[in-house]
């Protein structure tokens, strides 16, 4: 008489007797492996789709900001476009919106705080638009924050008036 029935049961499960239990064990293992692979593949596809949607939203946001800012950059009156840019900067998931003049100098930087308020901010050290690969239109992150989706757009014909950037 075996004093530990659990050990006896586990021993029988580990070494199934007969062909049918062995086939069922192999089938279960194959099914579990296939489900795990499907889960990993589906998760990866969803991550890529969400990242692509976020990137497209960021591109459209900076295009709107650049289009709105073009007349103000022409006249040199950045204060005239600030209310519009504040409205864009107040959108969810926008952390910072920066308007750059034709030389690449920050003309206006807005930052959305955790409580939802939008305030003027010192622009972070951003690379010049020419340093960004136009296919990626992304800045490198420091690794301390979650990956930010970031984008640039030129204001005026060919970006001759300046540009807008957001993250």
Mind sketching the topology for me?
Blueprint: H1 5-14, H2 19-75, H3 82-89, E1 96-101, E2 106-112, E3 118-120, E4 151-155, E5 162-166
Summarize the structure.
The protein has 167 residues and is an alpha+beta fold.
Question: Can you walk through the features of this model?
Answer:
This protein is of the alpha+beta class and 167 residues long. It has three helices and five strands, in the order H-H-H-E-E-E-E-E. It has a domain at 54-166: 2-Layer Sandwich (Beta-Lactamase), CATH 3.30.450. The longest helix has 57 residues, at 19-75.
What labels would you give this structure?
167 residues; alpha+beta; Beta-Lactamase; 5-stranded antiparallel beta sheet; 3 helices; 5 strands
Along the chain, the helix and strand elements come as HHHEEEEE
The proportion of residues in beta strands is 15-25%
Q: Classify the fold: give the CATH topology of the domain at 54-166.
A: Beta-Lactamase
Question: How is the quaternary structure best described?
Answer: single chain
- The stretches of 5 or more residues where confidence is low (pLDDT under 50) are 127-145
Q: Distance between termini?
A: 70 Å
Strand arrangement, major sheet: 3-2-1-5-4
Number of strands: 5
Count of alpha/pi helices: 3
Radius of gyration over C-alpha positions, nearest whole angstrom? 28 Å
What best-fitting shape do the alpha-carbon axes yield? rod-shaped
The residue-averaged pLDDT reads 76
Describe the sheet with the most strands.
Answer: 5 strands, antiparallel
CATH architecture of the domain at 54-166: 2-Layer Sandwich
Structural class: alpha+beta
């Amino acid at each position: 008489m075996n004093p530990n029935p659990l050990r006896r049961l586990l021993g029988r499960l580990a070494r199934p007797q007969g062909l049918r239990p062995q086939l069922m064990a192999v089938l279960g293992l194959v099914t579990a492996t296939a489900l795990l692979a499907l889960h990993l593949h589906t998760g990866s596809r969803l991550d890529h789709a969400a990242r692509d949607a976020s990137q497209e939203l960021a591109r459209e946001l900076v295009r709107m900001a650049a289009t709105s800012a073009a007349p103000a950059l022409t006249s040199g009156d950045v204060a005239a476009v600030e209310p519009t840019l504040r409205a864009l900067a107040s959108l969810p998931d926008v952390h910072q919106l920066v308007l750059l003049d034709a030389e690449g100098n920050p003309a206006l930087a807005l930052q959305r705080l955790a409580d939802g308020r939008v305030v003027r901010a010192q622009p972070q050290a951003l690379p010049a638009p020419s340093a960004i690969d136009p296919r990626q239109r992304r800045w490198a992150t420091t690794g301390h924050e979650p990956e930010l989706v970031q984008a640039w757009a030129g204001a005026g014909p060919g970006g001759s008036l300046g540009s807008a950037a957001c993250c």
